[in-house]
Give the backbone structure.
Amino acid sequence: MKKLIVALSIVSLFACKKAEEEQQDTEPGIIETVQNVNKMSKAADELKDYEKTTEKLKAMTPVANAVFKDILVEELGGLKRNSFNAGNASMVGLSSADARYGDQNDKNVKIAIYDGAGEAGSTMIAMTHMAISMNMESINGTNTKKTEEVDGETYLTESDTDPNSYKSASVNFIYKDRFNISFDAQKMTLEELKSFTKKVDLSPL
């Protein structure tokens, strides 16, 4: 729990600093700052409520790499798997895997799965849960980040309409209160990526 408190403190300090940098001398700037503080407060409350889940996760055994490979199959949604990696984060106590899928038109998606079981995993998943609970929306030029409900799941999404952007869309969510699932796409719209996420069978988790 101490690690969660430290991590929350770091995130809170960063958010406050960002709010100070963006605050203007006008009334809208003050309102925006208050909204940011309220979002952080809500996220902190969500994290406190999530403590019981975190304690359960600490006692769980991480899934084997073979389970990840069963999920990240050789082809998904018409895209072939170009790479697969599992266990790269084991040195810090995390069970994880990632795979990249693509076609000849430079369309590609990277899928990453992190298991929230164990000490390190439970801390990671709690911070992800807090971020998703902030109900945020941010627009910076062609880039938009926001939380949204998709088929009953809360997604943290990102999209960029700039055709030269390295990452055109991303989706991040928590599965079964335990697994952090992320999708990062190139040459795909956010709606296309949302549809692609449905091609992945997560039932083995």
